[in-house]
Amino acid sequence: MGALPKKTEGDLLRYGHFDDERREYVIERPDTPLPWINYLGTEAYFGIVSNTAGGYSFYRDAKLRRLTRYRYNNAPFDLGGRYLYVRDDVTGDFWSPSWQPTRSELDDYECRHGLSYTQIASSYRKIRAETLYFVPLGETLEVWRVRVTNERDTAAELSLFSSVEFCLWDAQDDATNFQRNFSTGQVEVADGVIYHKTEYRERRDHFAYFACSEPLAGFDTQRESFLGAYRGWDNPEAVERGAATDSLAHGWQPIGSHHVRLGLAPGETREISFVLGYAENPRDDKFDPPGSQTLNKRHVRPVIERWLRPETVEEGFATLRAGWDKLLGGLHVSTPDADTNRMVNVWNAYQNMMTFNLSRSTSFFESGIGRGMGFRDSNQDLVGFVHMVPERARERILDIAATQMATGGAYHQYQPLTKRGNNDIGDGFNDDPLWLILGVAAYVKETGDASILDEPVPYDNEPGSEAPLYEHLQRSLRYTQERLGPHGLPLIGRADWNDCLNLNCFSDTPGEPFQTTENVTGGTAESVFIAGQFVLAAKELAGLAGQRGLDAEAAECLAAAEKMTGVIVEHGWDGAWFRRAYDFYGNPIGSGENDEGQIFIEPQGMCVLGGVGLDDGLAAQALDSVAERLATPHGIVLQQPAYTSYRIELGEISSYPPGYKENAGIFCHTNPWIMIAEAMTGNGDRAFDYYRRINPSAREAVSEVHRCEPYVYAQMIAGKDAPTHGEAKNSWLTGTAAWNYVAITQWILGIRPELDGLRIDPVLPSDWPGFTATRVFRGATYEISVRREAGHPAQVIVDGAPIDGVVVPPAPAGATVRVEVVVS
């Protein structure tokens, strides 16, 4: 089935467009099919902001340090955020410059989502308001810079109201424990600054603040006083009245709202700044004596005053943009395809950084409560961003490895604030340990920093259990080798990459109902996917061992990979594709023997990535089966046929309706594995065709079908069995981002870090004449030019001289290397 058509200049973009020069996505009407969001922050303080100013903020951990409240699954879907209200004090008319929450009929509207900032501008009855939201580098605060302009011929008397609703820090408790929380809210106002100090009595170590650069006409900190009884955010009583109540919250629902009066002459613009921030008290008795209930504000007052100054805001915003210039400077490409250029150079790289920062914890589909940092997830994300911030990648690897257990197993997730594993989602996802090998290998290949392998890292963060990181990798491999099933394939445990394929559900007595069990230690279900992953990981560990001079160990790893390859071919091959697994009873899954779920995408990708079937034609045959049975115009579905009824022996996968999520949805994360596999077999046309099918920029013209943001990847697109085929869900935080970046940059464009240097080995679509790229690798800059010459043998020329092979040796840091590549 064909891919989406390429866009032409005549395409209508109903909701917005890319501004490539400014690296922004411009939304031109507020009623996007779903909230189209952006992220604020890149270090410790983060926020979500939608195109109508919805969202929330938190410090490091969206569950345990939530500053502002947000209600998921609400109606409207996007309700609660960084809202401003403008009131005409002459007529009493008021509106929201961000459209939400009043949804007034604005004369014009524009939202510009940029790299860690968002700007929303609108006009209403010739009053223009423009708000810039961003988190300055190195700070634990966010700035709202508001510019209000009177475009009338007469003077305007206006009021500006700000508003946030404070969360009581622990977002889970905040949303459930009302019998306590309705009595704990505490707010203090001093010198016009609103301090949210709930929990201060018991902990006295952190608080939030909300400040305004202008003298205040009033304020509110009690929600009901601001909104009025039986009212919502769309019609606050204080705004309607044109006067705040100076309420001080004691219990109930604390908020922050400033009231500023603005008298504007015709054509006049006023700039007002709001600062919302997080602070922790210094551990110093003279500032915070034992038993004191007095809020210590001394150390944050200079910070607040600095960021309320216009020149500081301007400088901070410029520094943020310059920071992104540096981050994106590691790779820049110019190809014949505009969508490829846009995603590789800006939006895919940007999404990679956000997934690195937040794993899968907080989006408009992830509440920030149920998940922390994923062990598997974070290791996969490494491959997409390691070239941008290698020093932070190193730190993340050590954090991840410290949550590994002494068995080699791993907590599936851990909390970013405590760095402790989540006990309720512990060991048993048997693919997890192998991802650590793949993540570390990606780091060492990119940086050449093999010293990380000698870093002492504890197991389960237990003091005294430290061992070199390299030993952690060895235990990861042994974890799989020590858990093999009846066919010699790895045990799946609770699940492998597909968390919803739960095959260790069984009946103790034949004929009796199946029992769901969390006790997977005795489960005999096996995974062909983990087998393919093991082959790949064993080869990567062999490379690291060889680099360390451990030749015998390298040979053992390669022998283990070869042995597992033989097991896959014997027990994992179904005649035209790789099987998916064996269930608890030894029945094959993902086989022509099954009535449904006959072929799955995951093993076709992962086995080929491990090199299985490349030499005997099995890989090509499996990929042909994918093209014939799984590919759709909107991407490659996870399996076919879809499961049409619930099957307890398969677990959660069959609980979804056909075409959604793991039940034959287009799980975009897996699509780039097939792109890479096609590139490995030399099929550039099919690899790039698949790439364009799920490329968000290429899907912009079908936004009404796709619905999610056209500038970032989504986790899932509804499959061909679904009534909403082509509709995306779960955007932003997905391994799709990193893997698509790897597929296009390292395999189709072929610019791939290796232990011995930078491989440049493109597998291009046949209609491309070539491309150019600039790649920073280990401190040197490689200026790469690729051109196609029919009938000409492939050749790599470095600084004017041909080299043997396609791996360019590392150059000294600071050097510029010119590389010409000829492909036939």
TrEMBL record:
SMART domains: CBM_X. One of its GO terms (molecular function) is cellobiose phosphorylase activity. Coiled coil: none annotated. Keywords: Glycosyltransferase, Transferase. It comes from the Bacteria. Its EC number is 2.4.1.20. CDD domains: GH94N_CBP_like. Transmembrane segments: none annotated. One of its GO terms (biological process) is carbohydrate metabolic process. Residues 324-750 form the Glycosyl hydrolase 94 catalytic domain. Pfam families: GH94_b-supersand, Glyco_hydro_94. Residues 23-282 form the Glycosyl hydrolase 94 supersandwich domain. InterPro entries: 6-hairpin_glycosidase_sf (IPR008928), 6hp_glycosidase-like_sf (IPR012341), Gal_mutarotase_sf_dom (IPR011013), GH65_N (IPR037018), GH94_catalytic (IPR033432), GH94_Enzymes (IPR052047), GH94N_CBP (IPR037825), Glyco_hydrolase_94_b-supersand (IPR010383). This is Cellobiose phosphorylase. It comes from Paractinoplanes abujensis.
